[in-house]
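Archive entry: two folds, one per protein. Generate the first.
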Amino acid sequence: MQNQAMSSHTIPGALELAGASVIITRPAATAAALVRAVRRRGASVVRLPGSRLCAIEDADATRAMLFAAQSADAWIFTSPAAVDFCLALTGPFTRAPARQVFAVGAGTGRALARRGIASIVPLGSQNSEGLLDEAALSTPKGWTIAIIDAPGGRDLLAPGLRERGAAVSRIGVYRRMPPRLARRQLDALDQAAHPWLTLLSSGAALEHLMAALPPGPIARWQREALIVSSERLRDLASAHGFADVHLARSALDADLIETACSVLSRHRL
């Protein structure tokens, strides 16, 4: 006869993260969907934004650059935030802002689609490397390309495209600033139940948090599981003393959560 009792290690499918504290490092402005998805899996959420997203300082000059770049062969949006801040400057486009529009990842593609802009999204890795692998960008010699992003971010696309013969300009439409962590956020982290599962998709967020957190929470954090969205972040986390680092397939919410569930299931064994 089949045993009807649930094993102590078995968690119902909808609550795979029950009992864990999931630390979300995305900026507050872009974290809402991930927070909801994690809570649906039964986790306690600790919001620990690693960056604040702010408008660019010289809006008039940036707006002029964007309108001038509409003669480019291609625009590349690097994040959903780049889409939002760009259109806050330009207003809705009555047509595509360039002959071809590319998105670094499916989330950015969806943000563009909501604004009526069709884009080419990587079929493989949902990142800059995946976009560079796309056939549509394999031979951009002679193209002019505008990359819509934030100043100071990782610059992999521009050098790669210039090596292929494209003329590339980067137009920063927003800024990633260090977070202003409130006492309540530090208290929530201090009181969070074990195990901790941190979801990380930004090197800037990790650098900001390592500079902002007191030594005690950092030492505790370094002993807990960190789920990262790229090999680059895995290397950066290791360099910052994190020993339990796990690589998700991409920065998409579903991929980060899937890896978190897998890590927690092994923790329960």
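Generate the second and append.
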Amino acid sequence: IPVLIYCTKIERRPLRTLGFIKTGAVREYVVGLGIGLVMFGAVYGMMLLSGHAEFVGFSPDISVGMLLLFFLGFVIQGMSEEVLCRGFHYVSAGITNPVAALFASSGVFALLHIFNPGVTLLAMVNLFLFGLFAGLYFLRRGNIWGIGAIHTIWNFAQGNLFGCSVSGTGNGGSVLVT
């Protein structure tokens, strides 16, 4: 919300400059959800195959209402990080070189996670790499909807579908027990 207020009230620019493009927004978001789900599903599969995770079973006490609340929370969280790290940094940060903006926004994204419980150097490298991917996706698609959806579903699937820790914290209930 502070980024939205700053950009629209102080910089006096429209929301489309942050990537909020109306044309095709629903389609972009739905495609992003699919891409993100497939991406995390592939990671989960690799963790199972490599022995870094074990599927225990299905959770007997998962609440659909709680799943929906977690999803809504991740919609807000994922889109907020993308608006700050992509939408804001590519216009408001004053970095005119697109490559520099890509690396700066990826660095900020990684640094936002530096105080997560159990963060490691490898985690920071992976967060930076995801930031590069997110920035390239944002630039290629020309809007914020798809990458916001990918970020949302990645976190939701990680914690509340597949039962893995999200950013070093508990998952709050999941469909699968991992």
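Annotation attached to the second fold: The mean pLDDT is 92. The radius of gyration is 17 Å.
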